[in-house]
Amino acid sequence: MKRLPKTGVAALIVGVAGVAGLAMLPRAISTSGAPSVAVTPGGWTDFTLETPAGEQVSLNRYVGKKAVLLAFWATWCPHCNATILDLKALHSGPLSGRLKILAVDWKESRGKVASFAAAKEIPYTVLLDTEGRISRIYGIVGIPTYILIDREGKVVYRDNALPPSIEKYL
Hints:
Blueprint: H1 6-24, E1 48-50, E2 56-58, E3 67-73, H2 78-82, H3 84-92, E4 99-106, H4 110-119, E5 125-129, H5 133-137, E6 145-149, E7 155-159
Parallel strand pairs: 3-4, 4-5
Antiparallel strand pairs: 1-2, 3-6, 6-7
C-alpha cells in the first residue's frame, strides 16, 4: 500500500473538512419551499414560520433590533420541557428588552403545540416547523438546540444547553 506524504494527508483532511463544512451551511428557505434570502455574513438564514395561532413570523423582523435566541424543541422532549422555566425567566426578566425568544417546534401539529403552550403558559413566541425544514437548514441533529444571534446579526452561541451567562453575549 502506498503512503501519502504528510502534506498530502493534511491537504486531503482540509479538503474533506471544507466540503463537509459547505454541506453544513444553512441555506435560505421559506415555508413554501422557495428560496428567500442567502445565508447572512453573520451565519444565520432568514425564515418565516407560523405561530400556533396562524401569525406569520420572520426571523429578520428581530435581527438587528435585539438579540434572538432560537430554541429548537418539541413537546415530547424532557430536556426541552426542563428549560421552559428558564426561557420564561429570560422572556420576562431584566434581559427581556434585549432578547427575543423564538421557540421552533420540531414536526408537531398545530393543535398539539397550541394545547401544550397554553397548558404550560408559554409567554414567548412559539413557531411551527411542521415539516422540519428549518431545523434541517440549521443542521439541527438533536433537541433542544439553542442558537443565539447577537444584535449585530452574528451567530455567537450554539449548543444543546442554554448559555450559562447569556448576558455576556448580549
